[in-house]
Specification:
Distance between the termini: 13 Å
Radius of gyration: 18 Å
Shape: globular
Number of helices: 7
Largest sheet: 8 strands, mixed
Helix content: 25-40%
Order of helices and strands: EEEEHHEHHEEEEHHHEEEE
Structural class: alpha+beta
């Protein structure tokens, strides 16, 4: 494994309900993926050169551009676009992105602009313990667009996608009905503390954005993966034994 972390971005998309905690868009990665195969994750992926060029042209962060693009490509939910496209346009965007057509050209042809103000930076994770590859990932949070947006996945990238509360995902993990990698579990525990999108944004704004690079500590003869305790995470340690790292 190269020591160089791959720049990446992911998006925590939040859908509020009339009652109860908000739901999050979760994607189940395809079984044949090199990284986190079969895991439930937030949509996201690598930042590419086209994301950087589009960001420079519009004075945006390349990781925000990548988070918007990947969410459309992986789930066909149009976040961070103005105006919000209809379902047919969004599905066409997804299919074109999967076919590797340039995002900038697709936006221009559809008369759409990027609205990066819709995204709030929530965290940045740079783990060192992944067995296959290492990512430097910006986690953004955004409110889901108005309307009934049911995710549509592309078979070779994802098995499924669904709107679930943070507690529902964590409970599936506890029952071994879902797989979570360490950063996803910690972020879900943090999100589960909040009853609304606005609460999540306030949490993001109340804590510094520092690279979260877990380390190993030994206590009482046991080894624990540990993260800093000042970044808003209610759980900061997990036993190393049996930890699935993706």
């Amino acid at each position: 494994m190269s020591d160089d972390a791959i720049p990446a971005a992911t998006l925590i998309l939040v859908r509020e309900r009339p009652s109860g905690p908000p739901e999050l868009l979760m994607v189940e990665r395809a079984g044949g993926m090199a990284f986190a195969a079969g895991a439930l994750v937030f949509p996201g992926g690598r930042i590419d050169d086209a994301d950087r060029a589009l960001a420079i042209a519009h004075d945006l962060l390349p990781d925000a551009v990548a988070a918007i693009r990947e969410t459309i490509e992986e789930a066909a939910v149009p976040v961070g676009l103005s105006p919000v496209p209809d379902a047919a346009t969004t599905l066409a965007l997804q299919e074109a992105l999967v076919a590797e057509q340039p995002f900038a050209d697709l936006l221009r042809d559809a008369g759409l602009a990027l609205d990066a103000d819709a995204l709030t930076l929530f965290a940045r994770w740079v783990p060192k313990f992944h067995a296959v590859r290492r990512f430097d990932t910006s986690f953004f949070v955004a409110r889901a667009p108005a309307g009934d947006w049911e995710p549509r996945v592309i078979e070779h990238e994802s098995r499924s996608a669904a709107w679930l509360t943070a507690d529902e995902v964590l409970e599936r993990d506890r029952r071994e009905e879902a797989r979570l990698i360490f950063p996803t579990r910690r972020n879900l525990e943090r999100l589960a503390q909040h009853a609304s999108f606005d609460d999540i944004v306030r949490d993001a704004e109340a804590h510094p954005i520092e690279p979260v690079t877990p380390w190993v500590e030994e206590r009482g003869g046991e080894r624990f993966i540990t993260i800093p305790d000042h970044l808003g995470y209610p759980v900061t340690q997990e036993r190393l034994d049996g930890l699935w790292r993706g």
